[in-house]
């Protein structure tokens, strides 16, 4: 049989109150908790989605791990390639050349990061071959000086597949007239689109041997890129590789190369949790107000229960039931609505953008243009437990005050 404290507490919650203002505050408290819980779940899901999407897009264009030398040139790279590719946790490895330059087409000039690659190795390292809008990565052939451009860079330069484009490098030639920059004409053989402005705006790919000639590196390369079987183990694998490589070489994994991005997202997620938790806290304060007024309204009932033998602990439990029920119902409504919105946010946001004619995530400002969502079960449980705990804490003081009611004092003026 259920304890009578629960029965009386539920009866008080369902009963029509003489003071309608108490019922109104109860409803506001419930809706406040539901709003806070739903907002927390939605925001945490969006932050998880951002982190997952950014990581996927960054690792879709950059390798998991890179081995290089302090001076920026790796001469004996075939032996290093054998060591890196021979590691049991390395799936694929390939040399690369990094450089800077300016691309010129007509009256347009744009600064670019130039990466020299082996197309057959890049297929195994990154997913850039799947991001080609026009042309093919395999069209990069040694000695033909082909180039693959990011989509935004190509649009800025008004360049299309088949066009010739001028690449200007900072390594100049000394002449009697002074320093003259080196110029080389390249043939556009492909255009890719990653969906991230830093890459689509400023990255150009050429063949490794063409890059070696362009930057006068001889047979040297900038380093070795590697793809790992488990990218989450990248820091450990980097340390293991450094112990196997010569002392003048070092390994850098993707967590260090893009640490600022992921730290910023993680910090923003924590701050948003703290800020949005204030909504639940405000709703909890409303529960305190509701119970204080309910205790005042039920002074006579409390006194009668005490004279019938109810203990102070029983009185306290009766009013805790009311507060806990408000918090529980609010949390359930918030969890259900938050999950539904988080799972369908990919459809809701485009509808709002189309309805009001706005774009929330402009491509030239943000890394991604679509609002992603990654609902994680752990976040839902944490938010639900937090809201329930703060609702429970909000009931303690009013319930304790109710348990301290003296029957004689309460019935004196009844």
What does this 3D model show about the protein?
The protein is an alpha+beta fold and 414 residues long. The chain has two domains: 4-57 and 261-411, no CATH class; 63-257, no CATH class. It has helices spanning 4-14, 20-61, 77-85, 119-125, 151-157, 197-202, 208-214, 234-244, 254-257, 259-297, 299-307, 312-343, 345-356, 377-403, 407-411; strands at 65-69, 90-105, 108-117, 132-135, 146-150, 164-175, 178-192, 203-207, 223-228, 249-253. The protein has a six-stranded mixed β-barrel, surrounded by four helices. Strand 6 and strand 7 (178-192) form a beta hairpin. The two termini are 33 Å apart. The mean pLDDT is 81.
Tags for this model:
414 residues, alpha+beta, 2 domains, 6-stranded mixed barrel, 15 helices, 10 strands, 20% strand, elongated
> How many beta-strand segments?
10
Summarize the amount of helix as a percent range: 55-70%
How do the strands line up in the largest sheet?
A: 2-3-8-5-7-6
The secondary-structure element order is HHEHEEHEEHEEHEHEHEHHHHHHH
Q: N-to-C terminal Cα separation, in Å?
A: 33 Å
Inertia-based shape = elongated
Indicate the mean pLDDT. Answer: 81
Number of helices: 15
Largest sheet: 6 strands, mixed, barrel
């Amino acid at each position: 049989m259920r304890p009578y404290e629960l029965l009386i507490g539920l009866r008080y919650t369902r009963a029509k109150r003489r003071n309608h203002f108490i019922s109104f505050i109860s409803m506001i408290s419930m809706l406040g908790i539901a709003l806070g819980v739903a907002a927390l779940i939605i925001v945490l899901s969006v932050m998880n989605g951002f982190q997952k999407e950014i990581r996927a897009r960054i690792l879709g264009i950059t390798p998991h791990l890179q081995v290089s030398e302090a001076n920026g040139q790796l001469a004996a790279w075939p032996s290093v390639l054998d060591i890196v590719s021979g590691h049991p946790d390395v799936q694929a490895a390939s040399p690369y050349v990094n450089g800077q330059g300016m691309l010129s087409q007509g009256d347009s000039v744009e600064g670019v990061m130039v990466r020299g690659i082996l197309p057959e190795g890049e297929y195994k390292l990154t997913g850039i071959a799947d991001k080609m809008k026009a042309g093919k990565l395999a069209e990069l052939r040694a000695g033909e000086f082909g180039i693959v451009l990011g989509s935004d860079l190509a649009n800025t330069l008004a360049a299309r597949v088949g066009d010739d484009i001028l690449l200007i490098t900072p390594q100049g030639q000394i002449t009697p007239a002074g320093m003259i920059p080196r110029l080389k004409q390249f043939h556009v053989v492909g255009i890719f689109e990653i969906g991230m402005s830093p890459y689509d705006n400023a990255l150009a790919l050429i063949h490794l041997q063409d890059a070696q000639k362009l930057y006068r590196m001889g047979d040297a390369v900038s380093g070795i890129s590697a793809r790992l079987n488990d990218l989450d183990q990248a820091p450990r694998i980097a340390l293991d590789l450094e112990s196997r490589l010569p002392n003048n070489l070092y390994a850098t994994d993707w967590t260090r190369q893009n640490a600022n991005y992921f730290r910023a997202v993680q910090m923003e997620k924590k701050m948003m949790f703290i800020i949005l938790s204030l909504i639940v806290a405000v709703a909890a304060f409303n529960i305190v107000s509701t119970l204080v007024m309910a205790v005042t309204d039920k002074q006579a009932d409390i006194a009668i229960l005490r004279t019938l033998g109810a203990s102070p602990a029983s009185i306290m439990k009766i009013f805790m039931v009311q507060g806990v029920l408000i918090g529980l119902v609010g949390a359930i409504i918030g969890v259900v609505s938050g999950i539904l919105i988080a799972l369908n946010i990919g459809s809701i946001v485009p509808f709002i953008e189309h309805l009001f004619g706005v774009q929330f995530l402009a491509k030239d400002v943000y890394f991604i243009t679509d609002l992603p969502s990654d609902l994680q079960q752990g976040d839902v449980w944490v938010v639900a437990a937090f809201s329930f705990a703060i609702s429970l804490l909000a009931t303690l003081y009013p319930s304790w005050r109710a348990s301290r009611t003296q029957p004689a004092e309460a019935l004196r003026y009844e």
